[in-house]
Amino acid sequence: MKKIISTLCAMLMLAGAAGAQGWFRQPTPNDTLRSTVVLPDKSVVFQIYAPKAEKVAVTGDLPWDKPVTFTKEENGVWKGRISKMVSGVYRYKFMVDGIQVYDPKAPDASETSALLTVDPSGNEFFAMKNVPHGAVAERYYWSEPLGQLRRLHVWTPAGYEKSTDTLPVLYLVHGGGDTDVSWPGVGAAGLILDNLMAEGKMVPMVVVMPNGSIEMPDGNMMGEVPVFAEDMVKSIIPFIEDNYRVHTDQANRAMAGLSMGGMETLETTLNNPEMFSHVWVLSASFAPGNKEVYEFERVRLKKEADRYNRNFKQLVFTQGGPSDIAYNNCKETLKLFDEAGIRYEYHDVTGGHSWEAWRQNLHALAQRLFK
Predict the structure, then answer these.
(1) CATH number of the domain encompassing residue 118
(2) Same domain, 213 and 246
(3) Residues 204 and 282 in one domain
(4) What pTM was computed for the model?
(5) Which burial class, exposed, middle or buried, applies to 368 when counting CB atoms under 10 A from its CB (0-12, 13-18, 19+)?
(6) Rounded Cα gap, residues 242 and 208, in angstroms
(7) What is the per-residue pLDDT across 29-79, written as a single tens digit (0 to 9) for each?
(8) How far, in Å, CA of 242 to CA of 220, rounded?
């Protein structure tokens, strides 16, 4: 599909509900701040935006004999410099008015959020229970389309290491603003799958959770959709099939994604229907308000309707009810599928555009795949 340019879509399709309220704030120096800058002589400049702070320092594994003095600039950015470090890896934290602060601008800052589980009974489908647990592995692969190393997470069921069975595979994508740690973290994917396996409610499978977030040179968030789809087909799927005991045929390959990941799921599977038998689109749609994109999809769906009906054993759209910010957009998208005569299922769950809904989605879809 042609490159999608839609500022409205970028705002609405972000899965990270935690960041939604920040869209209309005033810009600050923090927006483009680099918190650490390593200079050619191995000196390091530390920076943090703390306009109301009285004192800033840095602590961690840094050399004791090289104290860092911070000064505050007029724009509220504090800067400190340490000279000629030895090559290595260092842990560090900022101290802001005596309080330890993880670097909010570090590349992995979004992955350090604390997780709160509210489940007094301990019986929820996403709870940590005394059952056999599978493994969630962090893996790196080379992305041909992007020309760089990329990370993904892979869940394998309990006993996979000792087994010789070849399993089907589900590719499960997070939403905009998140990364591949989101499904195994706040999404509780590993726990949900472990519990379903222990209850005998799902077919043993490998679940791949790739990083659907790609930083685009022009800053166009929607531009990542076709790039990710290409990465899925050219790099992610070949990597998994080269390194895991998984079936490589269409009948044993599924894809699901939420919000932006749902758009990436649509892009990947509609372009490659012979590769996937099960497709689940969670809280997502085509680009809302983009008439050019909708017309393109209208023509494509009508042209390819027989092909999609023939290849997709399951094509399922789900949403978190009318409070889901993608709700109306999804309904408009489904009108195009109806006009083209493409078979699909539609389901609502509770929770709106949030992980409450998407955990329910994973619990439901995992029980229905490959049966």
Answers:
(1) 3.40.50.1820
(2) yes
(3) yes
(4) 0.85
(5) middle
(6) 13
(7) 998 899 999 999 999 999 999 999 999 999 988 887 888 999 999 999 999
(8) 32
